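pinging the channel bc i need a second pair of eyes. not urgent but kinda urgent?? the chain im working w is below, pasted from the shared doc
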Amino acid sequence: MASLYGTEGRFSEDLTARARIRDAALIQFAERGVKAATIKSIAEQAGVSPGLVQHHFGTKDNLRKACDDRVIEVFLRRTTQGVATGDIATPEFIAALYEATPPLTSYLARAAVEGGPPAAAILDEFTAGAEEFLSATWPERFPSGSPRARDAAAVMCAMHTGVIMLHDHLARQMGTDLDGAGTTRIGLAMADLYAAMGQYMASGAGRQITDAVTEYRDHGRQ
């Protein structure tokens, strides 16, 4: 799958006008916020007329909904399909995913910070997808529909969204802009951390922590 973008942030010529407008809106909404972005600024970003933007989407709210759908399609549906088919383990799938995500990451970060019903709807979709993944992968640990599965999915969504929201902070700490292939440093660090924490929580000390937290939950401070 080719990148959505050409060099230096310019749109690839093979995108349809509708897709170019949507992707321009992703950039404008991320940079300026939904309220401050205008049909005119989005049209200029896409290299089309304001009339064409209105022809394809009608209103700015419809454009925002299209951006939300794109975020969910790439971050949730495409990833879920990749897990189901095993394609997510291939270099081609990972390359396409990383090439498609930069504008989506910026848009999602801005939406999460601004809050409101649209952001909540996206995060609810992500949480539901995480719960489905956990229950399908570890059904005994995370029974479908159980509070344990819902809690784990909510925390998983919050952790990953937090990484997106703190992208600039991570770039400063890691000493790089984390653009392009540099973004893989986040994914690799997350995988390394998950592996290490899994080992620690399976150790004697980790089990003791879990037991202590469980006891506090069940009995409270005496």
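so The longest helix spans residues 60-85. and DSSP finds eleven helices and no strands in the chain. — does that match what u expected or am i reading it wrong
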